[in-house]
Structure prediction request, 338 residues.
Amino acid sequence: VASFSSRGPSPLTNETKPDVSAPGVEVRSAIPGNGYAEFNGTSMAAPHVTGAAALMLAADPAIDIDTIEQLLMETAVDLGPAGPDPDYGHGRIDAFAAVQRVVEAGAIAGSIDGDDTGLPIAGAEIQVEGAGLNLSRSSAADGSYEADYLLPGSYTVTVRSYGYAEAVITNVIVLQEQTTTVDVTLNALPRYVVNGYVFDAITTTIPISGALVSPLGTPLASVTTDATGWYSLTVAAGDLRLEAAAFSYATGITDTTILTNTQIDFYLDPLPPILLVDDDEGALRSYSPHVESHYLQALDANGYAYTYWDIEKEGSPTFDTIRQYAAVVWFGGEFGRI
Prediction:
C-alpha cells in the first residue's frame, strides 16, 4: 500500500477500513487533449472498483448494491495479515473472481428452528464453506437464510446459535443457477442458573449495588445487582465469559465452563476518580509538542489519584471505560486543542 494512502480503522466507529483496495499508483489515465498521463490516489483506485461493479451488473442486471459490495469483499485477494486489515481491507479487488461468482451463481437457502420450541431462530450464524469460499450469513427474524452467488461445488454448512448445539451438514451440492435447500433444526442445550455477589475488593465484605453483570458474547440481557450485591441469571451449558462493571470500579471478568448451577462472586478494585487521556499521538509532528508532563505534574502536585491512558499505546478508551470515572481529562498535542 502506498505511503500516501489513507488507512483505518475508522476514527469514528473503530471499524476496519477500507473495505477493499484497488490499484492507485502510477495509473495511466486519459487527460484532456486526447492524451494520457500517470496519476496516483483514490481518483485512480475508485474507477477500478466502479469498473468491476459495472462488469457484475452486466452479468446480472438484477444484482443489488449491497450484494456487489459483499461479493467484491468476499472475492478480494487477501494481502497483508490474514483477514481484513487497516491497510488493504478485505484485500485487492479481483474483477474476474467477482464476475465469476455472478455468472456461475448457485445458492443454498433454508430455515433454522429449535427442537425445544419448534419456533424459528433469528440471528443464527450460518457458515458456508467449499469451492474455495468461506462465507458467513445470519438467519432473519423468521429463521430463513440464503447464501447466494455461490460457485458450483460441494459445501459444508455449519449453524450456530446461542443455547443450541452446533449443527454441521456436509456434502451440500450446489449447481449453477439452482438453489439447494438446507433446513436445520438445532438441539437445545441444558440451562443452568448462575448467581453470586459483587463486592468491593478492598473490604471484601461491602456489597456493590447497581453493578451490571453481563454474559459476554451472548444475546442474553445484562442484570443489575440488588442492595446486597446479589445477581442471578439463567445461561446455557458451555463456556461462559461473565463481566461485572460498576461506577468507580475496575471491570471484573471471569471465564468458566457451566455444567451445573454455579455461584460466581466478583471482587472489584476501586478506581481513582480521574481518567487522564493522552491524545497527542506521541507528539510525532513538529507542531505537536509533548504536553502530558504538565498534566501529570499538576495532578501529582495536588495529590490527585488518576489513571493515565496513552491512546498511541492502548487505543481510544471505550465509552464503557470512560463512564467508570468521575472526571475525564482528554488532551491533544496540537496548540489550542485540549
Notes: The chain has six helices and 21 strands.
